[in-house]
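Margin note: ligand = S-adenosylmethionine.
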Amino acid sequence: MLDAVIDLLACPHCDGSMDLDDAAVLCERGHSFDVARQGYVSLLTGSATPFTGDTADMIAARGDFLDTGYYDPVRTAVASACTSAAGDDSRILEVGAGTGQYLATVLDALPAARGIGLDVSKPAVRRIARAHPRAGSVLADVWRQLPVRSGSLTHVLSIFAPRNAAESHRVLAPGGVLVVATPTTEHLRELVSLPGMVSVDEHKTERLSAALSGLFERTERIPVQFSAALPRRALADLAGMGPSAHHLSAPERTDLLAALPDPFEVTVSVTVSTWTRRGDVTVPGGHGDTAVRGG
Ligand SMILES: C[S@@+](CC[C@H](N)C(=O)[O-])C[C@H]1O[C@@H](n2cnc3c(N)ncnc32)[C@H](O)[C@@H]1O
Ligand SMILES: [Zn+2]
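Resulting structure:
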């Protein structure tokens, strides 16, 4: 619910603090943003963003897949990274939050915490609005100034999602942490080696360190690696929720998967790393890492 996080939001026009009335979020200077019937607020302003994020079908597939529990070890690792760096009053932002299920897992693990789920996809923010009573849902673009008050947060999460190093640094309080989950080159290798499926960028780990190391110091690293024998339905959701869904149509994916054994064994290989905000740095303008996809 937006009221749980309204004090953490900042006006995208004037950076002022925000308040909530029945159907709108209002800043102290009178800029007003409608709360959508589905419970999220759009704080996207200015020229149209070139990003539309995940489609309704991708979000539905992601929700169904995460509900199967096959990725629970990843969710547990993310929650554990967050709780090991948490005080009593955790204030969390998940960027590229998708369905909001990771944010919900973290909020369940931290009973006094509250969180903003931010995404540029409308189907995503509709779903995030229902993800957890202590979560507020915001439509915004991670590559612009985040509509969040400077120094207000204890955690920023980027789970298989794009991240903006400079903006994450700005919104975190001193000592705050950025928790990042990225696939390794082994992640889903049996699936991504099929024709038309998209594989992981092999230079992702170096790129992540290069983008974050000036502003953050890596303080924890949890490798998560296991095999899962996925029945056809779960495999179809997994193929439909990731970057390959931008390249292959649903019928093309169905044909591709029909030739595979059922169940089909895949390797899940993910790194959950915790980066602590450095206080002794001058933040450069502009953007941090480039977009990363592929959860
Ligand atoms: C691979 S999904 C991960 C979703 C979720 N974190 C999870 O792991 O289930 C990446 C998410 O980032 C969102 N996204 C992509 N570009 C974005 C942008 N420029 N600003 C905000 N969100 C973005 C997509 O809409 C999508 O929901
Ligand atoms: Zn304003």
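Residues 2-277 form a domain with the Rossmann fold fold (CATH 3.40.50.150).
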